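Entry type: protein chain
Record version: 2
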Amino acid sequence: MIPRLKNMKYSSFMLLVIILFIVPTYIISSLVIFSNIEANHIEEFSFLRQQDELYANASIHLVDSGWKLFEKTLEPEMEDVINNFKGELNALGGDINLLNMTEIQNNFGNKFDYYVINKSGTIVKTTYELELGLDLSNTGFWKNNAQPILESNETIFGRITTEPLTGVYRKYAYLSSFDRGYILEIG
């Protein structure tokens, strides 16, 4: 044995053995336990995140379905109004300069704003004066939808959106003029 240990009291020797054995064992077991706890927390966090994503996605789809149902209730009235708007333009021989937008709004309903958009994407007539002259040609809407609207004989309905200037919720309907030179819009 080591000379120093021979001179050590038995109780001191046992204390040293206990410290040299128990302390490392305690540290190692604590690290293993901590590692397991950490792995469990990470796994639970991942599971909860996935659950939250599923719930959020389901909520978004539910809200979107609700908006779609609401939109469908607006479309029959909007289709009647936009067809009357087109009929009025046709009665004037397709000349938009003869359109009296205030009279159209009074005749067909004050709850809608009326727009005439030329092939270039500019709002040339409207009851909503803030947007008169607005150039839509650089918008995604115009690039993706103008040609199909101009070529169609049917009313095309947009989704409910927020108005950029005011944040008000709006729904729009579009219809091509008879000569395909203009898009008629109500919102």
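Comment: The chain has four helices and seven strands.
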